[in-house]
Amino acid sequence: MKKVLIAFWSGTGNTEAMANSLAKGVGDAGGEAVLKPAASVTPALVKDAEALAFGCPAMGDEVLEESEMEPFIASLGSAELGNKPLGLFGSYDWGDGQWMRAWAERMKGQGAVVDGEGIITQLEPTEEALMKCYELGKRLAG
Ligand SMILES: Cc1cc2nc3c(=O)[nH]c(=O)nc-3n(C[C@H](O)[C@H](O)[C@H](O)COP(=O)(O)O)c2cc1C
Question: Which atom of ligand 1 is nearest to the CA of 10?
Fold first, then answer.
C-alpha cells in the first residue's frame, strides 16, 4: 500500500477541506493517507513517504503561513523530497495565485518533483477544486 503524506496548514478550514478530499482520493485508490498539520510533521516522516501533498493558503503578501508552514517547508531538501511526486494545493482570496506559482518554483529548487502547477481555489473550495484534489490523491496513490 502506497503511503501518501498530506501535510497542510489551514486557518479557516478552506485548505483543510481540500486536504480531506485529497485523502479520500488516496484511500479510494488503495493507498494509505497520512493526513497531518504541517507543524506536527518531521523531515523523517516526509522522507519515509512514497508520495507527498502539501497544502497552504496564500498568507502575508503572497507567501506561505510564516509561523508553522514556512519553517516546515524550509526544513526540507532533496534528501526528503527527491524521487517522489509532490502535489501542492491551497486557497486564496484577493490575489491571482502568485503565492502558488512561487511555491511550486521554490519546491523544484529544493529538489522536489512537482506534479502540475498546484491546485488553487478562491476561499471555500469549489466542487471542481475538490474533485481536482480527489484526483490528485488517486494519482499520488497509484
Ligand atoms: C493574514 C492573511 C493574509 C492573507 N494574504 C493573502 C494574500 O496575500 N493573497 C490572497 O490571495 N489571499 C490572502 N489571504 C486570504 C486567504 O488566503 C484566504 O482567506 C484562504 O481561503 C484561507 O484559507 P484557509 O481557510 O485554509 O486558512 C490572506 C488571509 C489572511 C488571514
Answer: 26
